[in-house]
Amino acid sequence: MKLLLKYPLPLDEMPYTAEVILETGTKINIDRATRDELIVDVPEDDVDDVASLFHEKGVGVRRLQELIVWDEERCIHCGACISVCPTKVFTFDTSWKINLEEEKCVRCEVCVKACPLSALACVE
Ligand code: SF4
Ligand code: SF4
Fold first, then answer.
1. Whose CA is nearest to atom 8 of ligand 1?
2. Which pLDDT tens digit goes with each residue over 55-114?
3. Is the C-beta atom of 115 inside 6 A of ligand 1?
4. Alpha-carbon distances, residue 44 vs 2, 13, 41, 51 (angstroms)
5. What is the rounded distance in angstroms from the CA atom of residue 30 to the CA atom of residue 32?
6. Is 40 within 8 Å of 107 (Cβ atoms)?
7. Per-residue pLDDT tens over the stretch 4-44
8. Which ligand sits nearest to residue 79's alpha carbon?
9. Are residues 57 and 75 in the same domain?
10. Does 59 lie in the same domain as 14?
11. Which ligand is closest in space to the CA of residue 70?
C-alpha cells in the first residue's frame, strides 16, 4: 500500500521516516521524495501501525488507492506514455492497446505532461 506523507517540518530537520522504521521495524520503500512530501510503499500487514505512528508524529498521511487516472475514452493508444514512464507502468497488449500496472507508479507526472490528449492525470 502506498502512503502519501506530508511533513510539518522539512525532512532534513526531522527524520520522521527513519524514526518510524526504527520504532516499527517495518521495511518502508521510498518511491518519491521532495523536501516536505514523500510517497512510500509499506507492506499491507504493517500499514495501519505505520500510518498511525506517522500520524502521532504530526505527519499528514493519505492512503493512495489510486495513483494515476487514465481516461480511456480520450486515449488514442499512441504509446507516448510507454516511452517516458520511468517505472514501466504502461505496456501495449497484443492488440496494441495500452495496459496499466498502476502499482508501479511513483507519481512523477512525466506521463501527464507527455500525453498529447491529456488522458492522464495524477490523483490529488
Ligand atoms: S500518451 Fe496518452 S493518448 Fe498516448 S497512449 Fe498514453 S494515455 Fe493514451
Ligand atoms: S506518473 Fe510517472 S511513474 Fe506514474 S505512470 Fe506516469 S510516468 Fe509512470
1. 75
2. 999 999 988 877 888 999 999 999 999 999 999 999 999 999 999 998 888 888 899 999
3. yes
4. 9, 29, 9, 11
5. 6
6. no
7. 898 887 666 678 889 999 999 999 998 888 877 888 999 99
8. 1
9. no
10. yes
11. 1
